[in-house]
């Protein structure tokens, strides 16, 4: 039986899967895929859905909020889901603008190409984005914060296989760099949101790193259902 990976999400937290690139065993190159969809007013698909409910697309895009929400899909939040008529910007909607129907990715066959997967709240990648124009920002610079964070985790996992320690070290580095960016005058780094980062290691390249570690593949559940809204913390 082939083990498969399924991911379901609502909100703006992300799941990123990193897989080995064939033929790069000596350099451990890997590719990065975002398995989730950001349910925000920056998402054209979500704006189309809200427009079909009779809402003003341009107004929502300008305010970057759906009533009191920054996200267009979530778990809970009944005040805006069932009380949306109380918000002027949403009062003309023909149905609930904020919904809980998830975006689903899967099933991806889990094989030896799977390196690691990480889950992060929006505070993590927003902090990295805010540092993009500052000289004190994150190393391994790339226009994509997903790539930057994946590279930081890769550097940590080369040192040890402790996923929690790797996540903690990366968050500590981002927090420190974000503060330094603010200290150096980066106006976009005046504040940051709470941050959550979780890492799941599938296949540790023991022969490359020289660690005597067991494979964690057999610990993977048949179904990984990630309801990412639960990662969000109130700011």
Concise summary:
The protein is α+β, with helices and mostly antiparallel strands and 235 residues long.
How would you write the strand order of the largest sheet? Answer: 3-2-5-6
The N- to C-terminal Cα distance equals 43 Å
Instruction: Characterize the main sheet.
Output: 4 strands, antiparallel
Question: In angstroms, what is the radius of gyration?
Answer: 20 Å
Oligomer: single chain
Low-confidence stretches: 207-235
Characterize the structure shown:
With 235 residues, the chain is of the alpha+beta class. 30% of the residues lie in helices and 16% in strands. It contains 7 helices and 6 strands; from the N terminus they run E-E-E-H-H-H-E-E-H-H-H-E-H. The strands form 2 sheets. It has a 4-stranded antiparallel sheet with strand order 3-2-5-6. A two-stranded antiparallel sheet has the order 1-4. It is globular, with a radius of gyration of 20 Å. The C terminus is likely disordered.
